[in-house]
Amino acid sequence: MIFVVFTQLRELKMKSDSKSSLRDFLWPIYGAEHKKFLPLSVMMALVLFNYSMLRSVKDGLVVTGIGTEAVSFLKTYFVFPSAILATFLYSLLCQFMDYKKVFYVFAGLFGLYFFAFGYEFFPNTHHYHVNQATIDSLCQWAPRFQWFFKIYQSWTFCTFYIIAELWGSMMLSLFFWQLANQITKTSEAKRFYPMYALIGNLGLIATGTLLRYVMNTDIEADVDDVVGFKAAINMLLVSLVLIIALNWYVQNVVATDPALVDQDQPAAAGTKKKKVKLGFWESMKVIFSSPYLGLVAVLVVCYGISTVVIEQVWKERVKIVYPTKSAYTAFMGSFQFYQGIVTMIFTMAGANIMRRCSWTFASMLTPLMILVTGILFFAFIYASSGSASIAAASTAATLSNPIYVAVVIGMIQNILSKGTKYALFDPTQKMTYAPLSDDMKTKGMSAVEVIGGRLGKMGGGLVVSTLLMVVTPSLAQLTPILSIVSGLIVLVWIFSVRVLGKLYAAALAEQEKAKA
Q: How far is residue 479 CA from its own chain's centroid?
């Protein structure tokens, strides 16, 4: 991908208008457009800063404080229902107030919770968490449900995990893009949207830098690093205040400037037909009525399940090398740092790869990457099966430790999977709707979002949590089975890409024939 970027730059320099072409490639924003582009891009960077900060902190709390196994139960039985409730609350509030004010309601609720957690719940967990004797008796009474009991024991960590998950779906996917669609003209969308994503990833880089600075990375330090976590919460609150201020500026200054926003056609989304919203069963009918759409849904579901399964196993190994909350959180901050850099590179290269290569090739890169790095990851896990105790007792991780190498490979796998998702998987998946009829295009996108989105996000958690209840309550003992499950899922994914690629090419040819 890096090669493609430099090739593109070299071609641009060879043109007679190389200076303007290079300018278009690196910064396609001009003049007065900066007045609305800069606040929106900074706002996205801050939203992603909080998103990556919350991801690192929530994993540090739950994985080390409860157990990696708890993550799959939280994703399946708590985060998913909470997301439905949050969506219902949003719809309900929109009936009584302007959607602009709904943003401030949700932002205020997030801020109140962050403040309460950082200044009351976390420093006083010994007052709020259930005593160990009670949990031990419950686990002995019903051992298959022990992870539900442990989640109940550390409920403050679990509520933080749920709220952190909701931040991405509400503040990024809903509120930010709703505002961006309102402000950005159709003619500007192709230039602005990739740049939003590019600058937004600076938030991930900032997260990694700051977390490594404020957290105590000594794995023998006190598990409850109150000072470090309070500093992280303070950064979340400051960032949230800036997000609210930028949102107010865009709504009250930019959106009211006729030179910046077309008053008759204010947003890219405004020119589109109203998006069809299908229920779960209606979506199932649409997908099963079309093998083509069924394969598109399979791609989304396979990505979700495979990445969640591998990520669960990886986080279990990270906990072995970094067993304290602060050290684990600092490591996840480093992960966010590298992910931000790689995603920025992949974002610049993705469009060029899709332009130069076939749909099948571009779409195949993501599952092939996950398959290859997944094989390497599990191979090193098996090689390090006898060194877990050594890693836990060691004061410094080194490349001579097989389990540390497995952690590094797992980190690379996660970074590449997310980078290719944003740069290749998402665009190629959206391209599959192009040759469909207008009716199937609209219904198909809605159906795949409902089925693929829901099952993809909770499917991996459901697989892992079910196996933990039925087979063994230990994720470490479950790893061989999960390696087979993830491998089979990726193979199904690859096969589906090959079949869908042929159908996609045939549909495009038929579309061209109809135009002729």
A: 23
